[in-house]
Amino acid sequence: MIAVDDGMEPLDPAHVAEVLSNPPFISIPGVSNVRDLGSYPIATSNVITKPGYAYRAAEVSNITEEGAEKMTALRITTIFDLRSDPEMKKYSTPIPTIEGVEIIRAQVFKNEDYSPESISKKFELYASATTEAFMKLYSQILDHGGNAFGIILRHVRDRPNSPFLFHCTAGKDRTGVMAAILLKLAGVDDHFVCHDYSLTRIGREPDREKVLQRLSREPIFAANMDAALRMLTSRYGTMKAFLDLLEQKYGGVEGYVKNYCGLTDDDLATIRTNLVSSRSRM
Description:
Elements: H1 13-20, E1 35-36, E2 48-49, E3 54-57, H2 65-73, E4 78-81, H3 85-91, E5 102-105, H4 116-128, H5 131-144, H6 146-158, E6 164-167, H7 174-186, H8 190-198, H9 200-203, H10 208-215, H11 219-222, H12 225-231, H13 236-250, H14 252-260, H15 265-275, E7 276-277
Parallel strand pairs: 3-6, 4-5, 4-6
Antiparallel strand pairs: 1-3, 2-7
Helix pairs in contact: 4-5, 4-12, 5-13, 6-14, 6-15, 7-8, 7-15, 8-13, 13-14
């Protein structure tokens, strides 16, 4: 099922609970929108993305003791944090200490990109929530994120047996772009990449009110909560447009990671091998 709707109305709690209790969603107490990027089919017969290796999520600042134990059970040894310092300070979401887990800063945007003027311009784009606006935002993520994404990709290249998790604040935009890069490098069809992106609509639903309260403190959203709701959308078509943008402007995923992340053809071959498995759990 594709999570398709206008993104504006609350979802049925029973439906949300049902979806969140099944793969690809993973329950880590204190962390929302956690998904395993494994088990997506590849064009090659009997090959899927490797289960239990790459996880995406929203911020982990409020992880509980039980959540930390779940990370241990999942064998997650590394977390890549795509956020910037001003962002963590603004939302009071510091980096937690999780026993046995190394947290690596992989900031997509530099601190100066969080000036009031820059934030205002980003929020204006988010508030419109048109596909064109999201493409401007996602192009900024690609333009600024080469170093951050390269850090994660080198982990895949060098540590194929060390499960990892990556996240931003909501686990939607920067995280969604990184997830798309990984899935496309693995050879996943566009349909499944778009489907994964659309699942954030359900993954973020339990935190809906908390996020809206946070956004209500921003002047642009205070008197226009519809704009805040539009900011939270994660439509299938938005990711489809992003994949077209990636192909047309950046030379596809391989062109992007070579030109912006500094990786080689040999690196890409190794990364692709490390992202897939012949063991099916579907």
